[in-house]
Amino acid sequence: MSLQAELEHYRNVLIVRLRGELDHHTADIVRNKMEAEIMRGESHHIILSLKDLQFMDSSGLGVILGRYKQIRSKGGKMVVCDVNPSVYRLFEMSGLFKIMSIYDNERMAISSLEVVS
User: Fold this and answer.
1) Is the separation of the CB atoms in 2 and 20 below 8 Å?
2) For residues 7 and 14, is the Cβ–Cβ distance under 8 A?
3) Quick check: 62 and 92 in contact, CB under 8 A?
4) Where are the transmembrane segments (predicted)?
5) Ordered per-residue pLDDT tens for the chain, 117 residues
């Protein structure tokens, strides 16, 4: 299975919806797309929507952590929403939930970021 990455701007938030598998074969695609959008400077925060992400490996974690550091260095936040159980377990084991908030859906994630914007 491949990966589809849909990027959408909502106010000052970049919403990234991932569908498929985020692994060593597809990590560079996501890294490049997200990095380009962050560098454009229009987005202060990122919502990572993972409802349709079936699989992720350590390469995917590396991409997410790298973009987290990139947006934090600009004073922004990254939050995660709609995480399925297998991906949730990987986030939990890696400790990413200690630095990123998780929300049930995009609406809740957007609400949380509008408070801090």
Assistant:
1) yes
2) yes
3) no
4) none
5) 699 999 999 999 999 999 999 999 999 999 999 999 999 988 999 999 999 999 999 999 999 999 999 999 999 999 999 999 989 999 999 999 999 999 999 999 999 998 664
